[in-house]
Structures are given as structure tokens and as C-alpha cells.
Amino acid sequence: MAEEMEGKSSIQGHVALVTAGAVGIGEAIAERLAHEGARVALLDLDQAQGEATERRICEAGGEARFINTDATSANEVKAAVEEALVAWGRLDILVNCAGGFVENPAIEELEEAQWRRVVDLNLKSAYLCAREAVPIMKKAGYGRVVNIASQSGRDAIIETGLAYSAAKAGLFGFCRRLAVEVAPYGVTVNTVAPGVVITPRTGVLHKDRLPEIISKIPAGRLADAADIADAVWYLARPEARYVTGVTLDVNGGRYVH
Prior knowledge:
Blueprint: H1 2-5, E1 15-19, H2 24-35, E2 39-44, H3 47-59, E3 63-68, H4 74-88, E4 93-96, H5 112-140, E5 143-148, H6 162-182, E6 187-194, E7 197-198, H7 200-206, H8 210-215, E8 223-224, H9 225-236, E9 247-250
Parallel strand pairs: 1-2, 1-4, 2-3, 4-5, 5-6, 6-9, 7-8
């Protein structure tokens, strides 16, 4: 039996949608799910990177499709989900990874348009994608929704933006409430909250503070994107069927509650 099971995964043949799947954490998640046998739709606005990630996954023997999508647009999200359904006929996993921030102004300098843009990207996108994906999962009697939040939604981290922290905190409430709603249908909803992860954006935002940040992490290093992808993979599996409404903190011990 052990020999028969070697190399097989319980998400073999499942279909996953990963927002912001072209680069960074989303890219690592898409690659991990594809490596485990899932067919992955990469929803992103970065066409060049998205096509490159699709190509790399396919060259490695996986199955992926880049779909140019603004995850804050209801119409574009709906079209992306429909495209994935036409291609593969099912939807098993949704990973809401779209998010981020660029600026970190004090509250008196935070313009309403900046606030709305960051909250839409980090929170509204999860709502729009879940609104399209969950009915499909409910009908099938199975589904996995995994949201990517942040340690900054858990704890006061001055190096992150105010709107970003508020939006990521909102994901926790969104996760808990939706988890209760869809649990009777075989659908789980969970959240992964990374600490500081090594990505191209990290290098720009925190390049002068990385030694200080690392000094506060008991594990003695920053996370890499694969650390987050491994956590998502666990929650996306059928075996995580009795885990729902929870936040899995992946931060090397910097935040423990």
C-alpha cells in the first residue's frame, strides 16, 4: 500500500483559484498546489509574470492557466471563475492572496482614496471571489477557502500601513462568519497569517530594517514564500475537513497568542 500511495496527493485533480498568483506568496502557493496535482488558475493583473508562472508550472509537469483579472472587480472575478469552470468543470479550492500596500502615511495624511484602494485590494477581493466560488462548492458538497491575512492584522506592527492592518484584521472576521455559514455544506474557510516574508516587495519596503525585524523573530529568520504555501496546502486538503474558521499563524514565533 505504501508503494501505491507514494507520490500521490489527495488534491490530485482538484481545481484551485489563486488570486495574485503571478508572483511572491501567491506564486509559491500556485506552484505548491500544482506540484500536488491540482489544476491552478492564476488570477493576476501582471500579464508577463502570470504567463511566466503558468509556463513554469506547465514545464514542470503541472497544469495551470493564467487569467488576467482585477480581483477588486466583480465582473472580472465572475468572468475568471466562469473561465476556470469551462476549462476544468469544477472548483475545489479558492486562495484569496490578493493584497498588499505601498505607502504607510500617518492617519492625518491617509487620503480616503488610499484607504479605499488598500481595503478593496485586501478585503473586498476576498468577498468578491468567495461570492462567486462558494455557491459552486456548496452545490458540490465540498470546498476549501483559504485567505491570506497578515500578522499586522493580529498585532500592532508600525512598519505596516494602517489601512492594510485594518483590512487584514477584517479578513479574520470574514473567515469566522463565512466558516459558520458554509460548514453544513462540506466547505471550510480558514486564514493563514504570515509574518514578514521574503519577497521582492519586502526588499523595497523594509530593506533598511530587516536585521532589526529578524532580531525579533525567535526562529531567527524571515519566512520564505514556500513556508506560507505549505500552510495553505495543509488547509486546502480534504484531510483538513474538521478545521474551519481558524487562523494559522506562520511567523516563526514573533506573534504567539
